[in-house]
Amino acid sequence: MMNRRGALSAFVSGVLGLLAAGEARAEKVDHSTITPLDPTEAIVLWPNGAPGGEGVKVEEKIVERGDPKGLKDRAQVHTRDPKLVVFRPKTPNGAAVMLIPGGGYERVVLDKEGYETARWLAGRGYTCFVLFYRMPGDGWAAGGDAPLQDAQRAIRLIRAGADGMGFSADRVAIMGFSAGGHLAANLTTRFDVETYPARDAADGLPTKPNLSALIYPVITLDPAAAHGGSRKQLLVQSDTPERVIELSPEKQVREGLSPVFQLHAADDKSVPVENSLLMFSALKAKGVPTEMHIFEEGGHGFGLRFVSGKPVAAWPNLFEAFAKRHGV
């Protein structure tokens, strides 16, 4: 049996080893947690290059945005090679979720709205895929529809790999945050718009999600309630009344859409809560199964990181209950 002095010595040696390896930073993070390693499995959406990229000159890179608590807060800017980063659960529950992080259609936020939520869902059995999508203002021929091309292609590839990854192709949900919530809503309402010519057999698979979750989403492009940055990027090639309607998901709602879960904070100063209210009203008017939660406080961009001690902390469990009720 190790005596107390020996146990203490072993503990101290272990902590010093972590510090030497750069895995624990006492001045920035809680020692009780160590940042998980990034996943290494990824699915490239367009092996021969994304469509309409002849005029694209930007360079893809990942930047560290900085977090006051020292947590990872990275973003990818100028996506050139769209992909899905895969999080496999230890015990699959037969369902999958494609996560679409936000970033104002100028970047893809990796950690807060992508990887952290994917880990939480994977811990509950969901096979998760974080989507790295292209930006409308980077010169892609499709402009505001370039992200939709990626989302359509991505959900098809997810379904193509369903059998081999332990989930059902009929139990694929999408979850979008902020501008990623707009992309999720765009896919929800315009899933069957032909945005690119077929590349392979996967492009014959359905693009309609089985369930959608819109988390503090950008929805409308009406200047009265729009998120100005996202609106500017989406309309970079064409700012006509017709295009505004086409890219405003609340204007594209129709009967027969898949169930939609919505979440917003009333004190959101970046994306007005009216975005979710407009979408909820449109869905309800067309008889689409929908559930909405508006919390008094929470702000914007909280993900799972900034919810501790607040009522909004309940949102992941509320989503899971909604998904289970609707068979996902």
Word description of this protein:
This protein is α/β, with parallel strands linked by helices and 328 residues long. Helix content is 29%, strand content 18%. The protein has helices at 4-20, 111-122, 146-160, 162-165, 179-190, 228-234, 241-246, 274-285, 315-325; strands at residues 42-44, 61-64, 74-77, 83-87, 94-100, 107-109, 127-132, 167-177, 211-215, 260-265, 290-295. The strands form two sheets. Strands 1-4-7-5-8-9-10-11 form an eight-stranded mixed sheet, with helices on both faces. Strands 2-3-6 form a three-stranded antiparallel sheet. α8 links the parallel β10 (260-265) and β11. α3 packs across α5. The longest helix has 17 residues, at 4-20. It is globular and about 50 Å long. Residues 1-33 have low confidence and may be disordered.
Summarize the structure.
The protein contains 9 helices and 11 strands. By secondary structure, the protein is of the alpha/beta class.
What keywords describe this structure?
328 residues, alpha/beta, 8-stranded mixed β-sheet, 3-stranded antiparallel β-sheet, disordered N terminus
